[in-house]
Amino acid sequence: MPPKVTPKSNTMKYRQNNQKLKGQGRNIDYKKFPQHTNKSRLISNGDIRRLARRGGVKRISSDVYELSKLYMKLYISNILRDSMIYANYSGRATILADDICRAAKRAGQTAIGFTH
């Protein structure tokens, strides 16, 4: 005796075989960010070239790009480390613009347009 096959009801709210159900609202596809990316690629070679042109550089060697990305990463990590120290000393978990300005001033760069 073959097994009984019962017809599926129309009110079933589960998706089967990736079919879109009517009346269930709009399916929004949110932008997915890559989880494992090389963060140094966020600064392009054109960005470095643009900064060098602003500084008066006419020609740029190909070795300069990787070195400048390395130095930028080191500089930003030092600034963030110092700003975290300032925020922790103040008893805060949030880094404020004043903390960044103080850390930049400690590194020898003064931020113009801020209070400190």
TrEMBL record:
The organism's place on the tree of life at top rank: Eukaryota
Any one of the GO CC terms: nucleus
Keywords, alphabetical: Chromosome, DNA-binding, Nucleosome core, Nucleus
One of the protein's GO biological processes: nucleosome assembly
Compositionally biased region (Polar residues): 7-21
Residue numbers spanned by region Disordered: 1-27
Localisation per UniProt entry: Chromosome; Nucleus
InterPro entries: Histone-fold (IPR009072), Histone_H4 (IPR001951)
Residues that span the membrane, as ranges: none
GO MF terms held by the record: DNA binding; protein heterodimerization activity; structural constituent of chromatin
Function: Core component of nucleosome. Nucleosomes wrap and compact DNA into chromatin, limiting DNA accessibility to the cellular machineries which require DNA as a template. Histones thereby play a central role in transcription regulation, DNA repair, DNA replication and chromosomal stability. DNA accessibility is regulated via a complex set of post-translational modifications of histones, also called histone code, and nucleosome remodeling.
Subunit: The nucleosome is a histone octamer containing two molecules each of H2A, H2B, H3 and H4 assembled in one H3-H4 heterotetramer and two H2A-H2B heterodimers. The octamer wraps approximately 147 bp of DNA.
Family in the record: Belongs to the histone H4 family.
PANTHER family per record: HISTONE H4
Protein name per its UniProtKB record: Histone H4
Organism whose genome encodes this protein: Paramecium tetraurelia
